[in-house]
Recover the amino acids of this structure.
């Protein structure tokens, strides 16, 4: 990552009304506190992993695809 | 915001999370002739699935969309121009794919017409921490809160939640300047937080 990107992302993070997420335990359930909407959505993303079935299904679909002249990554990255 | 307590939903939520996170053996195609594409899938599939999940609001449709997006990417690798990162390119395919699906379902009728003016008067509620119980309802509350936002706000919130995307890249994806993204995100966060608290 170049310095410009690093600075940009640092600025973005500063704009997120930052403070660390606080966690509070109760007897029966875990209460979580999110300082920002972004943190809440990131947590939601982590709680919703892509199901393994998708990879299996994609593999089956790729088997039916015509084999490319050159590897996929070379087509993508030259 | 008052906390909610629900033993049963917590147990259920935990069970669902456990079954989703058990590491499985890598599918054979990821180590075979499609290994390089498999690496791309491994690196980006989570963010693509999550975006599709929250744009479409349906886990099954999100799985289908994730499969279709990566299959399109494989087929369309020649169209990748390299002026943006692979993730940005995949996001573009995902956004178009989900928009096409929603149009075909006439799904736009399912979403309320949120009025910006309502959110502008939401006060400082968005500045408070979001305190929630770890239950399966959390995802439903997030989905409901997102769906009541204008579509552009929803997309911006989901994209900026990916820490690998810069405002410039989000602007590129949504065809606007980084400054415009920054301004709209401020309003979008505020609107989301206000609506999220109403769902408690």
């Amino acid at each position: 990552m170049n310095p410009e990107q690093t600075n940009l992302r640092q600025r973005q993070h500063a704009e997120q009304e930052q403070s660390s997420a606080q966690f509070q335990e109760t007897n029966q359930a875990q209460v979580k506190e999110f300082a920002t909407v972004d943190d809440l959505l990131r947590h939601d993303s982590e709680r919703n992993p892509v199901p393994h079935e998708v990879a299996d299904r994609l593999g089956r679909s790729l088997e039916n695809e015509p084999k490319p002249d050159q590897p996929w990554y070379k087509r993508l990255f030259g | 915001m008052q906390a909610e307590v629900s033993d049963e939903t917590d147990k259920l939520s935990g069970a669902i999370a456990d079954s989703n996170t058990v590491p499985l053996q890598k599918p054979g195609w990821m180590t075979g002739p499609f290994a390089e594409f498999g690496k791309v899938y491994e690196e980006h599939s989570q963010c693509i699935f999550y975006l599709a999940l929250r744009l479409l609001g349906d886990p099954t449709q999100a799985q289908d969309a994730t499969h279709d997006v990566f299959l399109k990417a494989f087929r369309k690798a020649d169209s990748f121009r390299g002026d943006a990162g692979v993730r940005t390119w995949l996001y573009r395919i995902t956004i178009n794919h989900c928009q096409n699906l929603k149009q075909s379902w006439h799904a736009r009728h399912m979403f309320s017409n949120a009025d910006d003016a309502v959110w502008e008067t939401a006060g400082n509620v968005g500045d408070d921490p979001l305190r929630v119980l770890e239950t399966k309802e959390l995802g439903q509350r997030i989905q409901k809160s997102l769906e009541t936002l204008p579509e552009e706000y929803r997309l911006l919130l989901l994209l900026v939640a990916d820490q690998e995307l810069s405002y410039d890249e989000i602007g590129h994806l949504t065809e606007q300047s980084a400054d415009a993204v920054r301004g709209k995100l401020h309003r979008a966060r505020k609107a989301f937080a206000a609506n999220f608290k109403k769902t408690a």
User: Anything to note?
Assistant: Chain B is about 65% helix and 0% strand.
